[in-house]
Design a protein that fits this description.
There is one protein chain. By secondary structure, the chain is mostly beta strands. It has a single domain, classed as Immunoglobulin-like. It is built from 1 helix and 9 strands. The longest helix is centred in the N-terminal third of the chain and has 15 residues, at 6-20.
Length: 124
């Protein structure tokens, strides 16, 4: 029986550890750009799971962002008011489905500040 050198034995014993700790993906990020009176998403579709949705106000008026899954009894999430040049953020877990995003300030949704985001199931 042959003896393995100390360096080879150490490398072989550490090899399983290198594959055991695969990093989990970080949250997906979606940016919603707001101005008078439009809302544009940086992506139209993302994978399900942890997500950060950021509102950037490029306009001259205040805006906010609401997000709700298009499903009966779904909960709404909302940033605070974001002043011109500012940002707001929502951090949450998104389940697969379609989500509506809109500005809740008076008359803004009706003037076009609405978008749809599709959340895809995780790849297996």
């Amino acid at each position: 029986m042959r003896r393995l050198g100390a360096g080879v034995a150490l490398a072989l014993s550490a090899a399983p550890l290198a594959f055991a700790a695969t990093p989990s993906p970080g949250p997906v990020r979606v940016q919603a750009s707001a101005d008078e009176f439009s809302l544009a998403l940086s992506r139209q579709s993302v994978r399900s799971g942890s997500a950060i949705v950021e509102l950037v106000n490029y306009g001259e008026d205040d805006h906010d962002l609401a997000l709700r899954r298009i499903a009966p009894g779904a909960r709404s999430y909302r940033t605070g008011i974001v002043h011109p040049g500012g940002t707001g953020e929502l951090t949450m877990r998104l389940r697969p489905g379609r989500y509506r995003l809109w500005c809740t300030l008076a008359g803004h949704r009706g003037r076009g500040m609405v978008a749809t985001l599709v959340i895809r199931p995780q790849a297996r």
